[in-house]
Hints:
The protein is mostly helical. It has three helices and no strands. It has helices spanning 3-13, 30-37, 46-55.
Amino acid sequence: MTTEKINQLFEEAIDKENRIPIAKLQDITKQKIYNWRNGRNAHIPLGDKISLLWQLGKIKILENHEPTRD
């Protein structure tokens, strides 16, 4: 998944029309969501975006089973 796709999904997830079950999220507070929605963070770490999307069930994280080169 590209960074652009993650950013797009994140923006859709934090849209003011979407209800986010904050009580069920780990390490993501009501204040963080408010700041993200209102553009109060100049830079939101990619890890925070991925964490939110994963906790909301918007993305899956799977183990890579490809063989590595030694």
